[in-house]
Amino acid sequence: MEPSFVWDDSYLTHLGDVDEQHRALIALFDELSRALFQGAGADDGPAHAIYQRLLAYTQYHFHEEEELMRRAGLDERHVQAHCALHQQFVEQIRLLWSQRRHMQDQAATLAGFLTSWLGLHILGIDQAMARQIAAIEAGTAAAEAFEHEREGHDQGTQALLRMIGRLYGVLSAQNAQLARANQTLEERVAQRTAELQQANERLRVASRTDALLGIANRASFNERLEQACALARRGRRPLALVMLDVDHFKRYNDHYGHLQGDACLQAVAHAVRGCLRRDSDLVARYGGEELAAILPDTDAAGALAVGQAMVQAVRALARPHAASPGAPHVTVSAGVCADVPPADAPGASGSAALVARADAALYRAKAAGRDRCLGEGG
Ligand SMILES: Nc1nc2c(ncn2[C@@H]2O[C@H](COP(=O)(O)OP(=O)(O)OP(=O)(O)O)[C@@H](O)[C@H]2O)c(=O)[nH]1
């Protein structure tokens, strides 16, 4: 059931402007109530626009009323209490409106608050204001009119009014606390969501990176290779691959131990990576001591030049390898191939054919004495 404001003569203050503004306010309250009840759960854009008009009009009305009280010369005790109620209302309605999404039944709560607050306010303090203005106009001193207003109520009514005022204060404070708690909760949820997103991003990067060498892992290599092949095929551009393997690495491990072996692989990976020139190039750990590079849009001559630069960069590390039957330092062998990837044949992808061809070149580089890079032409 919609709580709507039913106007009757008991609400009249007989102050022309004030009564007119009260009626306008009631009309806005009813308009907002209707919008809330009709649009419950849906987009509350229309209700929000009415709320903003209502808030603006309320503030205008409060300002007018406060000016009127000052012009009429009302006792300052009344003016202060009256202004405080106005201010409290503005704070409360703002708070309630900001929290409306957390309410179980926002239409009933908001409409109920508006209608009962206005009724209480008009029947209570606005009528007291009107009576004091009338008394002052009839020649009574402001302080006397104020005191008389107090005495006008019997003790029971006075106590009741105090209780209602106190109850309103308690509920307002409670409401503000709940709003703050909600706000904090929302901030915490937003912070946790951001942290989770960052953690997910770190996981995503980690799942594609080799933990020892800090370069792309095999899974990432496979994915990038498929993408690069598809692009190269579409553009009919050559795609180059470099397969690279550390020479006599088993002997290195046996001689220097696995930890030194790990450090050696890291140095090699760093040197090899330093030879890439384009953002689209990628070097990955293909297997134990085997690395692979994808060089999009690169022909055989270009690929051979990059492969040779990698071999030279590792040579330049001059990392001792006392157990090698070849050079006295760590070396690598590399094989390259470059081609427009062949269209996928059933059961075999163009990328697999390119890998096999680069692998065969690497095998020949090993057989030819290691520490070199060979292309498919030799
Ligand atoms: N320290 C270390 N060793 C690794 C890692 N991954 C693979 N290896 C070692 O690399 C060695 C590779 O040896 P092989 O495949 O026999 O080849 P190789 O000794 O390098 O000889 P060629 O390739 O013929 O020059 C093996 O002993 C692996 O244990 C790693 O992450 N760390």
Detailed description of the structure:
By secondary structure, this protein is of the alpha+beta class. The protein is built from 11 helices and 5 strands; from the N terminus they run αααααααβααββαβαβ. It is rod-shaped, with a radius of gyration of 41 Å. It has a 5-stranded mixed sheet, sandwiched between helices. It folds into 2 domains: 9-152, Up-down Bundle (Four Helix Bundle (Hemerythrin (Met), subunit A)), CATH 1.20.120; 218-374, Reverse transcriptase/Diguanylate cyclase domain (Alpha-Beta Plaits). Residues 212, 245-251, 253, 258, 261-262, 265, 288-289, 366 line the site of guanosine-5'-triphosphate. Its EC number is 2.7.7.65. One of its GO terms (molecular function) is metal ion binding.
The first-level CATH class name of the largest domain: Alpha Beta
* Class inferred from helices and paired strands: alpha+beta
Biggest pleated-sheet summary:
5 strands, mixed
The helix/strand order is HHHHHHHEHHEEHEHE
Please work out how many helical segments DSSP would assign: 11
Strand order of the largest sheet: 2-3-1-4-5
CATH fold-level assignment of the largest domain: Alpha-Beta Plaits
